Structures
1.
Amino acid sequence: MMSEGIMEHSDTAEQIIQCREVHKWFGTFHVLRGVDLTVRKGEVIVICGPSGSGKSTFIRCINRLEEHQKGTIVVDGIELTNDLRNIHAIQREIGMVFQQFNLFPHLKVIDNVTLAPIWVRRWSKDRAVKIAEQLLERVGIPEQAQKYPGQLSGGQQQRLAIARALAMQPKIMLFDEPTSALDPEMIKEVLDVMVELAKSGMTMIVVTHEMGFAKQVADRIYFFDDGNIVEYNTPEEFFLKPREDRTKKFLSQILTH
Amino acid sequence: MKRTGSQTSRVPFWRDIRVLRWAAQFVFLMVVIALILWAISNYRQRGMIFSYSFLDKEASFDLAEGIEFEPTDSYARAFLVGVLNTIRVAVVGIIFATLLGLFTGIARLSGNWLLSKIATVYIEIIRNTPLLVQLFFLYFAVILKLPQLSAAVILPGPAYLSNRGIVAPWPRLAEAFRLWWPFLLLALGVAIALIIIRRRTQARLGRPSIRAVWVFAAFVLIPLAGWFIVPGRPLWLDIPELIQKSGGVIKVEGGVTLSSEFTALLLGLVIYTGAYIAEVVRAGLQSVAKGQTEAARAQGFTNGQITRLIVLPQALRVIIPPLISQYLNLTKNSSLAIAIGFLDLYAVSQTMLNQSGRVVEVFFMIMGSYLAISLTISLIMNIVNKRMQIVER
Amino acid sequence: MEPSDIPPPRVEVGVLGWLKKNLFSPWYNALLTIVALVFVVFVVRAVLRWALFSARWEVVTINIKVFMIGRYPASEAWRVIASLGIVLVLAALTWLFRKAKGRPIRRWLVLAWIASFPVIGILLRGFGEDNPFMPRVSAEVWSGLLLTLVLAIVGIVASFPIGVLMALGRRSRLPIIRVLCTIYIETIRGVPLISVLFMSQLMLPLFLPPQIRLATVMRALVGITLFSSAYTAENVRGGLAAVPRGQYEAAQAVGLNKALMMILIVLPQALRNVIPAIVGQFTALFKDTTLVVIVGLLELLGIGKAVTGQKQFIGLHQEVYFFVAVLFFICCYLMSYGSRRLEKKLGVGER
């Protein structure tokens, strides 16, 4: 059961993602059960919840890595349907960072970043390289440009993944548990990049358990369980006054360490 | 591009991803069907027909190899002769190639430097030379260069080695066999029963109640008993003899004749496939981590036990799938028989084709036969493969 | 406490030590070594005695040109040498510029290689009968090692893209395409090459319009290409399976469409994985060209067989086939050596 959103009345920022009644089944397993979510431009949304709750599946539906079977998803005014053109347009506007990085091992660091702009946006090589170098600088690994991803540490690889996603100049960035596969000492460097990104005004949806990050920059935190949103709130309210029992139980589990 | 609110708009079908998927398949299928129809129309245009009625007609050619065949027999029977010849060379070839490959693979990994080097040289030479070259060499440069029958090399048996092939002693069935084969069946049944009981008691009590020796004894003693009980001898040994016929011509009678073509083909296939099997065996044995043998030795297992219980099961899991494909290769390579005159199914089919002119029909028969043989071998080996997995659990 | 400086027992080290460890240590090893040694000495002596004394090598030396270019007219042999020269020059250039980072050079080289095919084709085949400079030498006449190389190289180059497409088709999510590709691959892999050659030799013309006549060499090439493409397809399929799903997702997430994803991301990784298998397949194809003897084409082995039928060389099978075997051995060994070098080089680049 969804609680009433508190941002509904502020219409100053345009709505960039609208999900209504999104359902998805894996075979007979009902993984998403009517999810409603709205994101405004520049907002940072954090989604948390137990594993198997469907949160990763949900954000992967937004950029069509998974296909939703019922409901509507509208991104930047384009509806996500079976229309090939719409799908490609949406995928160009969304950048994604994966838990397993998924970097291209056969390409150098700089080529990982310039690949898509050159081939999809059709930029010239020089322009792509210039932007790429700026991005590598921004995420803090400019000196690694000529190396291969396998030669980088985990934290550097994930920061490279962020740079690769940013190279397409997306309007929205999706993060699927970006720090879960990292050794603890490398989590901070990645979170720092994400904080800077959030502060620069990027619209972000982040699936994570890093509550410190959420407190710092999230506009709202959503708690996902059993295929739907259980409750959402601003960070302060979410941690201090969780409304549902399931939320309280989850918070007690993840906040004790 | 239309910017909508949250209304679901109609997706134009030429951009709908689901439509595109099915359209792509449909188009693909149509293209394939169109090609087939076009091909068939060309075929008809040349006045060709498609019918298998020719199979009952007289073959009008003779087959020197294989089971009994007269030129008045049908094409169908000719084809059968060919198929049986192929199966004959394939089965014997597989057995010997496996033995050779096993021995060579183990030799390759042995601690004896000389042995391992010899194995390596053999493997490298065979794998880097085409099979057909090896066959030509064996047939033209070795077998056909053997002495004539009159001066044949005499091997223990006696067996006669000449440029006509090998004639060796061979057991043949006698009248009494009809009374004796039930003993063989009984021996097999008892042995299997004993093995099952042995397994069961081993699982329950920790040691088998029936010693392995007993199983072996049952397998040997029961037929042996039958041999003496049955009146007359169930088998007799057909020993070849060199006979001088009129006009100074030497012939050989009796025994079993392995023609020079068969011998050359068999030798070539065994040597060639043996080298590949050796590599498969080597890879399989090496895949068992050294730590396994060390741990086992530390636990007190004897060498024999280590090999039997630890190395072999794991190695076999890795060996069997590529071994299957080597067996299939051997079977397919047997078709090279036509290059040296052995009448396997492919060679017979070529003759049939030339005589009857039924190219497409014979072609389907050839393909069908090889596919059937391949499938059978795959099936048998897959069962063996699965058993390998079960035996461990 | 000073470490002991007593040298190890003499029998354990040096040549004696090595001999003992590797050849004689357990008693049965000593026995095996002796037996093996006797065997080796016997074989080597017999072979050497044959090769040096009783073998008549003039069958090879006199006919060397026939082995190389078969029935290609000797007066036009310069064209074969020119073709070989082109290939060698290109290979040398490729090796020289292998480290070059410049895109333009590599593009020119690729274009040069692609262009070399039609150029060499025309060079070997020539123009009409009456052309004085390069009279026609129809493909029917090409034979010997020349034909072997033509069949192998064209077969390899043609079967590779077909094989890749078949592998992609077999892994496709669209059922009809997957089924058709699987049928194609499994049928061809289940039958011997000889039957595929036979099919292309005898059956293919029956299914073409009566006006089209294909040269025997072309038909053999079709058979070889179809056959090899099925095996290449299986190798590439193995490589594709080893590419993690995350790569597909990352490529899609960054906006690449299906085609670009395959070409830029998936295939480079898939092919890198299976280079040894692919080169193994090419080596096998090279050896399999010998089978065209059975459909009447005279490549290297076939020419060898023809030579032994000539009056003055009758029965000299051993020398001829030994020579042919040695030629093949050298080529195949070089190919597998090259493949191992290639693997090492590409492996280094990745990590």
2.
Amino acid sequence: MIHAIAQAAAVLATALFIFSLHWMNDPKTARRGVVAGVTGMVIAVGATWIQPEIVHHGWIGLAIVAGFIVGVPLSLVPLTAVPQRTALSHAFGGLAAGLVGTAEYVVGLTENPAQLTTFRTSAIVAEVILGFLTFTGSLMAAGKLQEVKWIPQRPVTYPGQNVVNIGVLALAAALGVLVVLHPTAAWSGQAFYAIVGLAVLFGVLLIIPIGGADMPTVISILNSYAGLSAVAMGFVLDNKLLVTAGALDGSSGLILSIIMCRAMNRSFTNVLFGAFGTVQKTAAIAEQKAWKQETVEGAAQLLEQANLVVVIPGYGMAVAQAQHKVRELYDQLTKRGITVKFAIHPVAGRMPGHMNVLLAEANIPYTALVEMEEINPDMPQCDVALVIGANDVVNPAARYAKGSPIYGMPIIDADKAKTVLAIKRSKNPGFAGIDNELYVQDNTWMLFGDAKAVIGDLVKQLAGGSGLH
Amino acid sequence: MTDYWSMVFVFVLATFIGLGVIRRVSRLLYTPLMSLTNAISAIAVVGSIVVAGADYPTTIRLIGAVALFASMTNIVSGFLITDRMLKMFKKQ
């Protein structure tokens, strides 16, 4: 009877999870999705906890309380820190899978060798490799995003790096095969811990060569791994609910990875083994032409005279926390009857959808946020393209410069606008380390400085000047 | 003896459902989508509950409790931050 309750709860939770994701297809229904997800989770946890084989309750209660104590503050981080939080949550997911896999193997080894069938041991090995590599890989990604001091921000590469990385993974897999074939041999325990160690190492090695511009893709791939490790755990524990939920998470990560890769015109292998932005010292275009700097007054005037302004935000807007000032600018311009749209590149920022969330936080209506493919046909009609801390996603070199690492990447056609205003913190190249000729174009005017300060000045100018120049 | 093939079956079907559903998710919501799927996949908590609560040696249960804590953190922070972000998406 009580077992049937668990089965029924699992079916119900599965249905609720699918509805939860289904409702994410529209911002209007999305919050319903959270309610469905929470309901499914509570049902599943409750039904598991009341099962007769659960005889010790103290630690369960304690761990749940601890989860709340850590989880609540983690949900209150500033939205600019959401990429780090997401990476950290992938790390937790991987850790949970890795630990459960380890526990299951040790139980099998010491108490019940009959449990270590070929299928189950294979699942355990897969779970542990995926779990622990996701754990350390995501921790590294979170550290890079948080700009922790002892983790290098720039990609770290060395000769033979890919050989080392693949070698480590291949060794772990080979040991895995041995453990599957001889799950209870005298040396199997040691071999198993060696697999754990290699997976931990591989996670670190995998992320070291990856730069910030690749983070949206890498976070998506790690998301996929975290889901797959949950699937493997489902196989180990013979739990269909786990397999389903893990598969939903895995496919979500997969789709996002594909979208991110397409948005950069790169393949998975190229992202993971390509070490973006390291050596490409192509012809320095910027040296041939000089920047043209514009004053705040001049820029405000340009904006005032426009009919259509397209704002192109990038990671620089997030770093400067400029989204609220951008909202004030939006208000100033829309008040004058100027149409303002926001052009969102899929890989702008450090994770999928990063810009949308920041702009939504600043109360900019989501109807003003336009995808790259939709805005590009309108760019020639755009009077002012205002680039805020975006770089690679507006670099025209992506169209033709074959040697450039961003060659072939779809971009927002900022250069086709009648005038371009670009706000940039410094005169250094962007994260990918590539010069951007957009900035030296004839119709481009630069505004150097912190995005928040510059936009604040623009707003002041527009508010004070009230259009009477 | 577990029917492993039925598990593989479930996995394949769930992946197809996942691909179908996720493909239709609004592009505006990719960040909350990631935190939501992350919270949902923390359903791995049911596995940790078994390891932490069944009649296993203390070390094993301790490992289970740590895993349970990790999953629980994802559930709590994942659902809360998803809702926090979704609240911000307004039409006007």
